[in-house]
C-alpha cells in the first residue's frame, strides 16, 4: 500500500516514514503543500497524511483542491493545531480523519487501517495459492507449512499478485505499486525482482511457477493448482516472534532518527533564545516573531513524536504566546522567558533519559485488544483462550458494566445480543460503544438470525453480524476481516476517455464498443476512412484503433498522416489486422503504430492493451507538464535571489550588459544605483541570522516598491549590497527613486 506524507518538519517526516515503512507501507514524502498536491495529482496513492501548516500551500488548500478535482483518496490530517475550529475546518475541507500531534504511533496506524478499510471493503486476511500462504497478520510466507524468507520488495510483489489474481500488470504498473516516487529504477529492476521471487519459491520446494508471463502485456497470477487437503492449514509461528521480527527491521533506523533529532534541538532552541533577547530589548520584528512561532509549532509535533511529551505541551504554550498581539508586554515577556527555561530544562532532562532507554520498548507495545461485551462466562472463557493463542489480548465486560471500558483503543469489539430480540440494555450498549469508539469495528453476535435484528444492528452502527452457533475461531476470523489486520485492495477507478475506431466492418466496430464502453470509454466508430481527419479533429480522442486493410485509405496511411501532425503526433495508435507475417508487422511499426492487435481479437488482450496505452500516454503528458513546470521553476530560480525574491547578481549583470549596449547605440540615458546596508554585521551578530534575513527581505521589498517593475530591475548584488537598473532615466529621476 502506498502513502503520501506531506510534512515540512524533516525530523517528524523521517520518524513517520520509518514507522510506516516498518509496517510495510511504501511512502512518498513532500516537504511543502505545492509539491504534495502535484504528487497527489500525478500518482495514485492509497492514503494521504497531510499537515496543515505547510510552505507554499497550506494543507487545507491542498485537501480542498484534491476534492474539487474529484480525488477521493482517503486523507488524514496530522497537525499540532488542535482547536475545535481547526478540526471542523479540516473535516469540512474534505479530510476523512483528523489527528493532533503529538500522537501515539499505534493509534495512527490503527486509524490508517480504518481509513483503508472504509474505501475498499472487506477481504480474507490470509492469501493463498495452492499450498502457498501469505499471512498479513505476521507478514509471513509459507509453503507446505514451512516459512519462506523474502525481502521487502519480493514480499510486496507476491502480495500484489495474490490480491489481484485476474489482473495483468505491466512493468510500469509494478514500478508504480512497489517503488517510491523518488526512486528511478528501470524496467529491468522488475524483471530481476520477478526472477528473484521465482528462484526463492523454487528453492522452497514449489514445482509450479505461479507467475505467468504474457508476451507484450506483462505478468499475472496463474490459476492455482489442485492442492491436497493436508496442506490447507497454514503454518503459524509464535505471534510474539512474528511481531518482533517485523519491528526489528525498523529499530536501527529509529535509533538513528532519535539521535539526529536530539542533536538538532540546540539549533531549534537557539531560534527561541534569539527571539527572547529581541523581546527583552524591545526590538522584536513581526517577521522574527512569525519565524519563532513556526519553529515552536514544529517543536510541538517533533518533541511529541520523539518521546518529549511534556516538552511538546510547553512548546504548544510558546506557540500560542507567539500568536498574541501583546507579546511585548512585560508580563508576557516574563511568561515567555519562564516557558523557554522550562522547555530547556525538560529537553535536557528527557534527553538523558531517552539516550539510555532502549528503543526496543517499541516492540514491547501491548498486543491488539479485543473488547468482549458478554455475560456468558463459559463462552467468554473459551473465546479468551482462542484469542490468546492467536496473539490477541481480550477484556471481558458485562453488558451492564460499560463504565469499565478500556483506556486503550481496542482493535475490535464483540457485543452479545441474547434472546429472540435484543433487550433495551443491549441496544443501549451498542449505541454507547459506537459513540465512544467511532473508528473501531463492532461485531454483533446474536442468538436469533432475523431480518429485524440485522437491520437494528446495522442502524446502530454494527460493522458485522454473526449468529450462534459459532465457534470463537470463526469470530476471530471476522475480527481479522473487519479489524486490525485487514489490508485493503485498491478499487480501480473507471477509465474515462474517448476512442476513435476506424474499420470498414460494422461488426468489428460493434465489438470495440461492447468491450470498451463498460470501462468508461466513449467509442466513436467510423466506417468510411475518407472522413477520418474531420472526425479526428472533432473528437480529439485519447486513442486510435485502425484496421489495417480498408478501401481508399488503409490503416498505415492514416497512421502516417497522424504522425506527421504536430498536435496528434503523440496520440496512441493500435493497428488491428489478421496478418501475422513479418513484413506486415514491420510495415505497421515503421508507420509509427504503438501496438498491434491480431484478429480474431482476444477480449482480455484488447482491453489490456487499450488501457495500458491510454494510461501510459496520460502519464507521459503529466510528466511532460511537470518537467516543463520544473524547467520554469529552475529558470526562475537561476534569475532570482532565494532569500529576498528579487533578481540575483547573475541576472543583474546580464540585464545591465544588454541595457548598456542598447542605450549606447540609441544614445539614451541609463541610470544605475548601487547601495549597501550600514552596520549590518553588527545587527546580525546581535539579533541573529533569522532577524538579519528578515531585515534583508524588508529592504528588498522597500526598494522594489520604489521602482516600476515593468521597466526597472532591482537586485541583490551580494551580501547586504543591492543594485537598481533604471532604463531611460536621468540623474534627477534616479535621485527621486
UniProtKB/TrEMBL annotation:
Boundaries of every HPt domain copy: 250-357
Modified residues (Phosphohistidine): 297
SMART domains tied to this protein: GGDEF (SM00267), REC (SM00448), Trans_reg_C (SM00862)
GO cellular component, one term: cytosol
Molecular function GO labels: phosphorelay response regulator activity; transcription cis-regulatory region binding
Coiled-coil spans in chain: 609-639
Known DNA-binding region: 124-223
Residue ranges of domain OmpR/PhoB-type in the record: 124-223
GO process terms (BP): regulation of DNA-templated transcription
Modified sites of kind 4-aspartylphosphate: 51, 547
Residues covered by the GGDEF domain: 668-737
Keywords: Coiled coil, DNA-binding, Phosphoprotein
Domain Response regulatory: 2-116, 369-483, 498-614
Record protein name field: Response regulator
Organism: Oscillatoriales cyanobacterium SpSt-402
Source species taxonomy: Bacteria, Bacillati, Cyanobacteriota, Cyanophyceae, Oscillatoriophycideae
Amino acid at each position: 500500500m502506498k502513502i503520501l506524507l506531506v510534512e515540512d518538519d524533516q525530523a517528524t517526516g523521517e520518524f513517520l516514514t520509518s514507522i510506516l515503512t516498518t509496517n510495510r507501507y511504501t511512502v512518498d514524502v513532500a516537504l511543502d503543500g505545492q509539491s504534495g498536491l502535484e504528487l497527489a495529482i500525478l500518482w495514485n496513492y492509497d492514503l494521504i497524511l497531510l499537515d496543515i501548516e505547510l510552505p507554499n500551500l497550506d494543507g487545507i488548500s491542498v485537501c480542498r483542491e484534491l476534492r474539487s478535482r474529484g480525488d477521493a483518496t482517503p486523507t488524514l490530517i496530522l497537525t499540532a493545531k488542535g482547536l475545535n475550529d481547526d478540526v471542523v475546518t479540516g473535516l469540512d475541507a474534505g479530510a476523512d480523519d483528523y489527528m493532533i500531534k503529538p500522537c501515539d504511533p499505534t493509534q495512527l496506524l490503527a486509524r490508517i487501517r480504518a481509513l483503508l478499510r472504509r474505501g475498499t471493503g472487506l477481504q480474507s486476511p490470509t492469501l493463498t495459492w495452492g499450498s502457498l500462504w501469505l499471512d498479513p497478520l505476521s507478514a509471513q510466507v509459507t509453503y507446505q507449512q514451512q516459512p519462506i524468507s523474502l525481502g521487502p520488495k519480493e514480499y510486496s510483489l507476491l502480495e500484489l499478485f495474490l490480491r489481484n489474481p485476474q489482473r495483468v500488470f505491466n512493468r510500469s504498473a509494478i514500478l508504480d505499486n512497489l517503488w517510491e516516487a523518488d526512486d528511478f529504477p528501470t524496467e529491468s529492476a522488475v524483471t530481476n525482482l520477478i526472477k528473484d521471487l521465482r528462484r526463492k519459491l523454487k528453492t522452497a520446494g514449489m514445482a509450479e511457477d505461479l507467475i505467468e508471463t504474457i508476451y507484450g502485456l506483462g505478468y499475472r497470477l496463474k490459476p492455482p493448482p489442485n492442492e491436497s487437503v493436508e496442506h490447507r492449514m497454514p503454518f503459524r509461528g509464535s505471534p510474539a516472534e512474528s511481531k518482533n521480527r517485523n519491528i526489528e527491521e525498523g529499530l536501527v533506523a529509529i535509533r538513528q532518527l532519535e539521535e539526529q533529532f536530539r542533536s538538532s534541538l540546540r539549533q531549534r532552541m537557539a531560534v527561541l533564545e534569539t527571539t527572547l533577547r529581541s523581546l527583552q530589548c524591545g526590538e522584536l520584528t513581526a517577521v522574527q516573531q512569525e519565524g519563532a512561532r513556526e519553529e515552536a509549532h514544529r517543536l510541538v509535533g517533533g518533541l511529541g513524536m520523539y518521546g518529549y511529551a511534556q516538552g511538546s505541551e510547553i512548546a504548544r504554550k510558546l506557540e500560542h504566546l507567539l500568536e498574541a498581539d501583546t507579546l511585548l508586554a512585560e508580563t508576557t515577556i516574563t511568561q515567555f522567558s519562564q516557558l523557554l527555561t522550562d522547555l530547556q530544562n525538560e529537553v535536557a532532562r528527557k534527553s538523558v533519559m531517552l539516550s539510555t532507554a532502549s528503543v526496543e520498548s517499541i516492540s514491547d507495545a501491548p498486543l491488539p485488544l479485543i473488547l468482549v461485551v458478554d455475560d456468558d462466562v463459559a463462552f467468554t472463557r473459551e473465546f479468551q483462550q482462542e484469542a490468546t493463542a492467536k496473539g490477541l489480548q481480550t477484556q471481558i465486560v458485562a453488558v451492564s458494566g460499560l463504565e469499565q471500558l478500556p483506556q486503550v483503543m481496542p482493535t475490535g469489539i464483540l457485543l452479545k445480543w441474547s434472546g429472540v430480540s435484543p433487550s433495551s440494555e443491549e441496544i443501549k450498549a451498542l449505541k454507547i460503544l459506537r459513540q465512544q469508539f467511532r473508528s473501531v469495528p463492532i461485531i454483533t453476535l446474536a442468538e436469533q438470525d432475523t431480518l429485524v435484528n440485522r437491520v437494528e444492528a446495522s442502524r446502530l452502527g454494527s460493522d458485522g453480524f454473526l449468529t450462534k452457533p459459532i465457534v470463537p475461531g470463526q469470530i476471530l476470523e471476522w475480527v481479522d476481516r473487519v479489524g486490525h489486520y485487514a489490508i485493503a485492495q485498491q478499487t480501480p477507478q473507471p477509465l474515462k476517455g474517448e476512442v476513435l475506431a476506424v474499420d470498414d466492418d460494422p461488426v468489428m466496430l460493434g465489438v470495440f464498443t461492447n468491450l470498451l464502453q463498460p470501462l468508461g470509454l466513449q467509442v466513436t466508430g467510423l466506417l468510411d476512412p475518407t472522413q477520418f481527419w474531420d472526425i479526428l479533429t472533432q473528437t480529439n480522442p485519447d486513442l486510435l484503433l485502425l484496421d489495417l486493410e480498408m478501401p481508399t485509405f488503409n490503416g498505415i496511411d492514416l497512421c502516417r498522416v497522424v504522425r506527421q501532425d504536430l498536435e496528434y503526433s503523440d496520440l496512441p495508435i493500435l493497428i488491428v489486422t489478421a496478418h501475422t507475417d513479418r513484413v506486415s508487422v514491420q510495415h505497421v511499426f515503421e508507420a509509427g503504430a504503438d501496438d498491434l492487435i491480431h484478429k480474431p481479437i482476444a477480449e482480455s488482450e484488447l482491453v489490456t492493451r487499450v488501457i495500458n496505452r491510454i494510461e501510459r500516454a496520460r502519464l507521459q503528458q503529466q510528466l511532460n507538464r511537470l518537467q516543463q513546470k520544473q524547467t520554469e521553476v529552475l529558470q526562475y530560480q537561476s534569475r532570482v535571489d532565494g532569500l529576498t525574491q528579487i533578481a540575483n547578481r547573475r541576472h543583474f549583470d546580464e540585464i545591465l550588459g544588454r541595457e548598456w549596449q542598447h542605450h549606447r547605440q540609441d544614445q539614451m540615458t541609463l541610470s544605475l544605483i548601487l547601495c549597501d546596508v550600514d552596520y549590518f554585521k553588527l545587527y546580525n551578530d546581535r539579533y541573529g541570522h533569522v532577524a538579519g534575513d528578515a531585515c534583508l527581505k524588508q529592504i528588498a521589498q522597500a526598494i522594489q516598491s520604489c521602482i516600476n517593475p515593468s521597466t526597472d530591475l532591482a537586485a541583490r548584488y551580494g551580501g547586504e549590497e543591492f543594485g537598481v537598473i533604471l532604463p531611460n532615466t536621468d540623474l534627477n529621476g534616479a535621485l527621486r527613486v
